[in-house]
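User: tokens in, sequence out, please.
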């Protein structure tokens, strides 16, 4: 996993609301504390499967929490990202282990017996469709640690949903 070179302004959560020419960034909504605010996240409006994914990742007793996301059409692809990391009370002693999450995900995906008719394997597809990056983060007044920005893109809506669902399953059920 590479260090994120572009997202350095989002290092302290919750982020502030930001009104721009191209729209509004709602800022950081802490879904671990306020899951009822999920409908305020307009960035997932056209991707309703993300609502369940975000709520499940942020549900009680989970390891991770999310910090931001955005999904839409970019260059004829369904594209988006989700920022996430350990919850402040679940940060491991070596928080840099999060940098191995991409490889752990691909191992997880390869362990599944998935029906697949496209060329290559599900892991090959995921490696081409996902980009994992890490950067520094402070949540409220936590010590500095790291978050993951997971970027995804797919030609078809269903393919993006497939990717997001398996990432969800990995984070929620198998990690």
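Assistant: Sequence out:
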């Amino acid at each position: 996993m590479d260090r994120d070179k572009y997202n350095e302004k989002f290092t302290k959560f919750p982020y502030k609301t930001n009104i721009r020419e191209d729209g509004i960034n709602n800022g950081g909504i802490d879904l671990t504390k306020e899951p009822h605010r999920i409908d305020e996240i307009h960035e997932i409006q056209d991707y309703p499967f993300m609502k369940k994914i975000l709520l499940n990742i942020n549900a009680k007793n989970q390891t991770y929490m999310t910090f931001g996301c955005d999904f839409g059409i970019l260059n004829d692809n369904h594209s988006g990202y989700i920022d996430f990391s350990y919850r402040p009370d679940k940060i491991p002693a070596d928080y840099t282990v999060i940098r191995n999450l991409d490889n752990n995900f691909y191992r997880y995906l390869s362990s599944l017996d998935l029906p697949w008719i496209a060329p290559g394997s599900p892991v090959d597809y995921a490696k081409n469709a996902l980009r994992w990056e890490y950067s520094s983060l402070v949540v409220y007044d936590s010590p500095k640690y790291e978050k993951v920005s997971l970027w995804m893109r797919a030609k078809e809506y269903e393919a993006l949903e497939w990717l997001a669902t398996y990432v969800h399953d990995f984070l929620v059920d198998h990690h």
